[in-house]
Structures are given as structure tokens and as C-alpha cells.
Design brief:
Length: 286
């Protein structure tokens, strides 16, 4: 088997990331971009790729890390987020679920069938609030091609068609306090992200979340990896099929959003999901 040339591989990754940014207009001139930086391989590649492109495309870059409060797991990710941010000279802002909501994911997890439910709600809440406070124009996440295919198939299996308009490499701003999300790695396979980290000797947080085994996503991920091994190209074909079959309905722009009566964050009802969960968990903890 022919060994990979690091220079060629890096150039290919950079070219595809830049193509997604340009083709889908992810970043505008003089944008202030915040990267959701966990310390894992996907978010670290996103940080490095955008750092390399920021002068060429003329935008500002910073990073946000969230400490969800997962004992024995999150500490290493935060350490690496700090190290990479310092190395690249990028401002890093850290937010903590414990500080912001007076609870940890370890506490919240016991009240749900899978910890991914409260984790997803609280992470999105904290990232958006921090990005808005920092006057970010966009929030860049490390979602790769695998993540997008998994999310699509999960929604498809649940007949949750409402979520289809949330797929794609870019979400629009639907409320002044909602920071649009962009996915620069949208056309990069998870395997390729791992190869990038190894070829460039980039230390990343490789440990799997201790709650991951309980999720539907984890089972689907393993199934898709098996299909990809037997039939290379399966994941790209699924994404291509999704793009051709489903038209992104951006009618969500017309959805009436309010501000949560408790915290003031955008919400489709009077009490946002994060505050609703916090209230429920606090009652259970008493």
C-alpha cells in the first residue's frame, strides 16, 4: 500500500474545506468566527484550517470551549484546547455548565435514558450564548461528513422531518441572539480527520465520551463504518442522495421566536429547553 504524502494530503483537505466555505458562503469578509473547540480531532482541525485561511479570506477568529462536567473525561480535552489555542495565538473563552447552570452533566445524566439528550441541549445553549456575548457573526463546529450522515439517518428513522431543514453546511440567523452555525468539515470524512492528526503529529483528545455507548448515534456510527469498510464511498453516496432528494426548506426563518422568560435566550415557547431541563433536574436532585 502506497504511503500518504503529508503535503499532498494536507493540501487536499485544505482545498476541500475552502471549497465548502466558498461554495456555500459560510464566511463573509470581516466576519468574527467563533470555533466550538472541544480538543477533539474535528474541532482542532477546524481551528487549524480556519487559522490558515483567516488572512486570505479576511476574517477574525476566536474559540469557545465548554466544560459540561463529565468527570475524568473533559479535563484532557480542555487542556488540549488551551494548548492549541495558545500555539496558534487564538483567544480562547471557556464556559462551564456548573458555573452557568449550577449543575453538571454527570448530575443530569441519571435522569435521562441517554446523557446525549441533556448534553446536546446544554452545549448548544452555552455555545450560542457565549458566541452572542462575544459578538460572533458565525459559530464554526467540527461536524464532519460522518456526523451529518448520522444525524440525517437518525432523523429519517424517527420520521422527524422537521429537522431536515437544520442539515447542510450553514444555518441562517433566525433571531438576533441566535448565532448562525457553519460546518467547514462538511465534506471531510471522520477517518480523514484522524489521518490528518496522525500525519501532522497533532495531539488531540481521542477518548470516547463515557456516555456515548448509550446513544442511538453510537450504534448507527458502528453500522455505517461497517458498510463503508465493505463498500467504500457509502457515506458520500448517502450525503449526495440526501442533497438531491431533499430540498432544504428554510421556512424556519418565519418561525416566531420569543425570549425565554427565565434567561432571555431565544425560544419557541415561553421557557427555553435548557431552563426547562434545569428546572426538572433541580427538582429531582432535591
Amino acid at each position: 500500500m502506497r504511503s500518504l504524502d503529508r503535503g499532498d494530503f494536507n493540501q487536499d483537505i485544505k482545498k476541500r474545506i475552502e471549497s465548502v466555505i466558498k461554495d456555500y458562503h459560510l464566511i463573509d469578509k470581516e466576519d468574527r468566527i467563533a470555533v466550538a473547540l472541544s480538543g477533539g480531532k474535528d474541532s482542532v482541525l477546524t481551528l487549524y484550517a480556519l487559522q490558515e485561511l483567516k488572512n486570505k479570506l479576511d476574517f477574525e477568529l476566536l474559540a469557545i470551549s465548554v466544560d459540561e462536567g463529565i468527570g475524568g473525561y473533559r479535563e484532557d480535552g480542555l487542556r488540549l484546547a488551551r494548548e492549541h489555542s495558545l500555539k496558534l495565538g487564538i483567544e480562547l473563552v471557556e464556559v462551564s455548565l456548573k458555573d452557568e447552570m449550577s449543575l453538571t452533566l454527570d448530575q443530569a445524566a441519571k435522569f435521562y435514558q441517554t446523557a446525549c439528550v441533556p448534553c446536546g441541549v446544554f452545549r448548544r445553549y452555552l455555545l450560542n450564548r457565549a458566541a452572542h456575548k462575544l459578538s460572533a457573526d458565525k459559530l464554526a463546529t467540527g461536524h464532519n461528513l460522518d456526523d451529518e450522515v448520522q444525524s440525517f439517518l437518525m432523523s429519517f428513522a424517527r420520521a422527524d422531518t422537521r429537522r431536515f431543514n437544520k442539515f447542510g453546511p450553514k444555518l441562517d440567523r433566525i433571531h438576533p441572539k441566535m448565532v448562525p452555525r457553519i460546518k467547514p468539515l462538511w465534506m471531510i470524512l471522520e477517518k480523514e480527520v484522524g489521518i490528518w492528526a496522525v500525519l501532522n503529529d497533532i495531539e488531540v483528545h481521542m477518548a470516547e465520551c463515557p456516555y456515548a455507548y448509550t446513544s442511538f448515534r453510537s450504534n448507527l456510527k458502528n453500522y455505517l463504518n461497517g458498510l463503508e469498510e465493505k463498500r467504500p464511498g457509502t457515506k458520500r453516496n448517502i450525503l449526495n442522495s440526501f442533497q438531491k432528494t431533499f430540498r432544504f426548506d428554510r421556512s424556519e426563518k418565519t418561525i416566531k421566536l420569543y425570549e425565554c422568560e427565565r434567561c432571555g435566550e431565544p425560544s419557541s415557547i415561553s421557557l427555553c429547553k435548557a431552563c426547562e431541563m434545569k428546572e426538572k433536574i433541580e427538582k429531582e436532585l432535591k
